[in-house]
Amino acid sequence: MHSFLKSALGLSALLASPAQAFFRMPCGQNIVTERIDPIIAPGAVSAHVHQVNGGNGFGFTEDYTAARQATCTSCMAKQDSSNYWTPILYYKDQQGQFTKVDQNGMTVYYLQRGTDTNYKAFPEGFRMIAGNPFKRNFTGDFAAQAVSFVCLDYSGSGAGGEWNYLPTHACPDGIRAQVFFPSCWDGVNVDSADHQSHMAYPESGSYNGGTCPSSHPVQLISIFYEVIFDSSKFQFWNGDYGSNQPFVLAMGDPTGYGFHGDFINGWDIPVLQSAIDTCTAESGTMEDCHVLDLNTGDEMAACTIPGSVNEDITGPFDKLPGCNPVSAGPNMAAPVTDCATTAISGPQIPFTDMTSKAGYGTGNSTSSGSTNSGNGSGSGAYGPGAPSSSAAPTPANNNQANGASHVPVNPPNPVNGGGSGSAPANAATTDAPACGPRTHYVTKTEVSYVTERVTVTATPKGANVKKHGHHKAHAKNAKHN
Fold first, then answer.
1. Residue 44 located in a structural domain
2. What is the C-alpha separation between 85 and 54, in angstroms, rounded?
């Protein structure tokens, strides 16, 4: 393995160019998991459960000042107190009970993609959302292509593959959920009513690399989330809501098309810009980006905040938190309007501030963040009201020639990997963009890794080794290229 890594790094250095440079940022355990979303539901309990990583300035309301006041972060870069969050995953058993699926690691990639190589850091106050929680079909546009799932199979048994929907067969080593954020900015607004239209995917090329539209001419650094769910401990069955699998996202989505990610910028902006400008190695390792100060694993794990919503989110229970019904589509799901209001309360779990022991100095973590002054808007397509249209939203100026909306019938072919099982009836007729060669491996860290243009082969050692890593080799027009 060591000889491979040395060779891989040498090859990466040989191939390095700003257009291919990236760094991957491991994040440890979530700082909090509950119904909280300061973008969509500022100052209130949100509609579904999220798992949150990043700085402990996070709360029910949050602006840039609050984010920068964080005293620790669960992610590796000390100068980044941003917050990154996604919905959690549940398992529905054959008795109709829902149980939370553990999350086994998150990685945030900072990627230099696009034809304009003058990449900019996120501005102060910036926030955005990628994906639509109400979506239940594959529309084929770039916004739809940006959401995908990988069936992890480190043994190479043939179960692995990548799709735009939740896998419809058992995944031996878990499910990796992925979302690629739009990177074309209008250059003016740090937020918008729907928290998306100030951003756009490229108008040509691919969703993760191409030419920005004239309405959104500023090329920001691209971010891409990977979240691993430990689904392998649950008995696989075909489900009972037309999805051919037993897992459902927190907002009642058994298809996966509604997976989404939220981001609030908390970076030391000059440091991020310096990292963008100078950290141009293709290795992707944070250690190769010398402008960043790095947290240890213990420091990342010590950064938490106490929950402030008094409800069981683990299960088993008959209904999902927030009264979200399971909705398989293909029509857009409707917002829940008949669920009893849940109040924000004091910390609901025993909480010990470990930041000082982990070397964070003062270690003053926020108890709930609810006193932070926020500037997020609760209006728009993803706010308390119904979606403004029955069609899935697409980023402004998205090139419809690159994937017009349609009613899908047959599943796309898996990306480099088969696996049995039928896709949901609303799966896409258009195949997802093909990836290059890919080999998954096992690593002792709770992080997933990408090494571009290199294929890796390794043998797992020991039953207790964490199975959270992967290497991808990307062809010229590969999915994440």
1. yes
2. 9
Structural domain tally of the chain? 1
Q: Which residues contact 395 (CB under 8 A, 6 or more apart)?
A: 142, 143, 182, 184, 196, 197, 199, 200, 201
Cis preceding-peptide flag for 393 (omega within 30 of 0):
no
pLDDT in tens, the chain (481 residues): 333 222 233 323 323 334 468 999 999 999 999 999 999 999 999 999 999 999 999 999 999 999 999 999 999 999 999 999 999 999 999 999 999 999 998 999 999 988 889 999 999 999 999 999 999 999 999 999 999 999 999 998 888 999 999 999 999 999 999 999 999 999 999 999 999 999 999 999 999 999 999 999 999 999 999 999 999 999 999 888 777 899 999 999 999 999 999 999 999 999 999 999 999 888 899 999 999 999 999 999 999 999 999 999 999 999 999 999 999 999 999 999 889 889 888 664 444 444 444 444 433 333 333 333 333 333 333 333 333 333 333 333 333 333 322 222 233 333 333 333 456 666 643 333 333 323 232 222 333 333 232 222 233 333 333 333 343 333 333 344 4
Query: What would the two tokens of residue 147 be?
Result: 């959401």
- CA-to-CA separations, 285 to 77, 154, 256, in angstroms, rounded: 12, 22, 30
Residue 133 lies in a domain: yes
Return the H-helix or E-strand segment holding 438: strand 438-440
In a domain, 176, yes or no: yes
Residue 278 covered by a domain: no
Residue pair 224/180 in contact by the 8 Å Cβ criterion: yes
The DSSP result for 442-457, as a single string, is -BSSS-----TT----
DSSP code of residue 338: S
Neighbours of 108 (CB within 10 A): 25
CA distances from 17 to 112, 218, 454, 474, 478 (A): 10, 20, 16, 15, 17
Closest Cα to residue 199, out of 276, 120, 287? 120
**What CA–CA distances, in Å, run from 303 to 27, 267, 296, 422?**
11, 17, 11, 41
Domain region containing 405: 22-267+293-432
Give the other-Cβ count within 10 Å of 464's Cβ: 6
Distance between CA atoms of residues 294 and 299, nearest Å = 10
pTM metric for this prediction: 0.75
Query: DSSP string covering 242-264, please?
Result: SSSSSEEETTTBSSSTT--EEEE
| Element at 297 (helix H, strand E) | helix 297-302
Between CA 112 and CA 438 the distance in angstroms is: 21
- Identity at 477, one-letter amino acid code: N
CB 22 within 8 A of CB 110: yes
Hey, what's the torsion of the CAs at 278, 281, 282, 287, to 10 degrees? -100
